[in-house]
Amino acid sequence: MSKNYDIRDLSLADKGRFRMQWAAREMPVLELIGQRFEKERPLKGLRMSACLHVTSETANLMRVLQAGGADVVLTASNPLSTQDDIAATLVAHYEMPVYAIKGESNETYYAHIKAALDHRPQITMDDGADLVGTLHKDRRELLPGVIGGTEETTTGVIRLRAMAADGELMFPVIAVNDALTKHLFDNRYGTGQSTMDGVIRATNVLIAGKNLVVGGYGWCSRGIAMRAKGLGANVIVTEIDPMKALEAVMDGYRVMPMAEAARLGDIFITSTGDINVLDQHHFEAMKNGAILANSGHFNVEINIPALEKMAIEVRRVREFLDEYILADGRHLFLAGEGRLVNLAAAEGHPSAVMDMSFANQALAAEYVVKNYDKLGHAVYSVPEDIDNEIARLKLAAMGVSIDVLTSEQDAYLRQWRSGT
Ligand code: ADE
Questions:
Q1: What is the pTM of this model?
Q2: I need a surface site. Which of 180, 293, 365, 402 has the fewest CB within 10 A?
Q3: Residue 293 in contact with residue 199, Cβ under 8 Å?
Q4: CA distance 359 to 40
Q5: CA 325: distance to chain centroid?
Q6: pLDDT per residue over 146-175, tens digit each?
């Protein structure tokens, strides 16, 4: 790549700046961290490569890392999640090398990751572990220069733990997703709202009265089920984990195998982290007109190659909706090319939850710098004091105050003699 960025259109920069500033209004915790970073410069001179969804929220995180002194480049963490105006803003107004174009091919996506690795990062910041995976597979000569990394999402943390278990991970990574201030809010409320936003923007169908099948009942799927129910859908949950399935039953949802749900669903949303959750035998059982969407990190949860094989024609009927006309005459509709629908067809999680996720990212990067020499080649949780501090700051920013234990209550919790 000749120039030090690859984006759609630099002239979108001013539009992106307004959207970035709008997002910042809902990100007070990150703002506070930014102000401290500007004074203390904890990341001074460090080369960082970030592989994140290029959104208005991410742009604000990038601004904070720069304020902390980091020399950052940014590449997309999904071919379809980039907001082109934001990419332009970072290049034009922050002089940041950005490699991200909405709708880029898989080939360009990996070329962009390689360009970000050419920056020779000392710290990696990943969402889905494609950057760290590519670094370990194709650019091993860079590994000795890396002091550590951070990982944003459930899927990425699972991949990194698999690497560590195989003895392949070559530096410490902080699992931002493990922080309570991340997954309890971002995964649940963020994915819940933005996924329904994506399905609605892609289709504009009425959710009320529809049978909506949610694949999985982890934190993300819980949020999707909750918001779909709030919009009036009859929600069906599918699971492989008995504990999660039981929880879904007690939360008031119908739970059944996907093979049964396939016959009933009007809308299907997968968010499991695994492959072929919707497979050929499910497509064969589906009602004419069923809508399929995925909100898991990778586009593997819906078996799109099988769907393509079953189709005699595929046509784009709306901006983020493809119609698959099957040989038996039925029509199935796929939203956002089976990529995470909340970022492909909408704008991703709202800024107020990304505030906490990205506060964790910024503080985890600072933690790596201060502690890398004490850490092994493993996946670490965000320290509890950082997590709690983010919760405290978020409450304060929301104007919510809480009680403090009296000394009598504190003493009661420390004793074991008194009962009823
Ligand atoms: N992941 C989900 N939503 C996001 C957003 N708005 N920005 C960055 N990453 C995200």
A1: 0.96
A2: 402
A3: yes
A4: 16
A5: 31
A6: 999 999 999 999 999 999 999 999 999 999
